[in-house]
Amino acid sequence: MAEKKTNQDFWIGIGRRKSARASVRLTQSNKDSVINGKKAEFPAETDIPFELVGMKEKFGVAAKVSGGGKVSQIDAIKLGISRALEKFNPEFRTSLKKAGLLTRDPREKERKKPGLKGARRAPQWAKR
Q: Which residue ranges does the record annotate as region Disordered (predicted)?
């Protein structure tokens, strides 16, 4: 795909998964990736959006993540990267959507109900 020339310096994408929230900022440089102000080696899973559109070494990523666990945070970053890439070049939307990278996973933790031990787990019950 042809690269689109834009006069913007960065692109922002917001990603969420369970209780994790990630604000991702892409810059068109091959800088180190930064998570919450610290240099970070991103897991291979966060490279998937870049590999899909053929832009693996063209962007620097700065992400601010809060909440959730490690896996949820990685998924939130991946969604944020995908949304920022779509803003960079709208032609990427079809390939990202086809791979399911622009779809937010709507599953959230179910709340605990009164009278139960968890969301659905009931206390032990004796018939007699």
A: 99-128
Pairing outcome for strands 20-27 and 34-35:
unpaired
Query: In this structure, what token pair is assigned to residue 65?
Result: 């993540």
Q: How far apart are CA 66 and CA 59, in angstroms?
A: 22
Q: How far is CA 98 from CA 12, 52, 87, 89, 90, in A?
A: 21, 10, 17, 16, 14
Q: What is the CATH number of domain 10-98?
A: 3.30.230.10
Predicted pLDDT of residue 116: 97
Question: Torsion over CA of 81, 82, 83 and 84, rounded to 10 degrees?
Answer: 50
Write out the two tokens for 64. Answer: 């601010």
